[in-house]
Amino acid sequence: MMDFIMVPLTTGIVFAAIYGLFELFVRRKERLAIIEKIGEKLDASAFEGKMRLPSYGGTRFSFSSLKAGCLLVGIGLGVLVGFFLNIMVVGGGLSELRHFEEERLIGAAYGASVLLFGGLGLIIAFVIETNMKKKEDK
């Protein structure tokens, strides 16, 4: 059905990939040349005391794992609620609905509950993060 567009599309993709590879190698050479030019003008005394590893011993909290955990808990609860909604809808006597409409209703229930509880998980993570920052500032 779409044979007329496959040949030009494939040719375009191949040429774009080849162009991208050439551009990647040319940029690499340009960057190395710029680094060499800058390296000739600088000496090591310019970087004394400025290049240190960040200190990890302070009271810094990483909230990324908390956010990911709350999001996953929210998604899990969303799937669970979607499953129970599915059981209630199918077992609730909605047999007059056609099969297609029933599948759309079930899909909407799953999608809505997953998004709802995923967002709720992110909101809970935000509240916990702000509470911990307030305690840290005190």
Automatic annotation (TrEMBL):
Ranges where the DUF6249 domain occurs: 12-129
Residue stretches spanning the membrane: 6-26, 70-94, 106-128
Database matches in Pfam families: DUF6249
InterPro entries hit by this protein: DUF6249
Keyword ATP-binding listed: no
Record key words, sorted: Membrane, Transmembrane, Transmembrane helix
Metal-binding found in the keyword field: no
Protein name: DUF6249 domain-containing protein
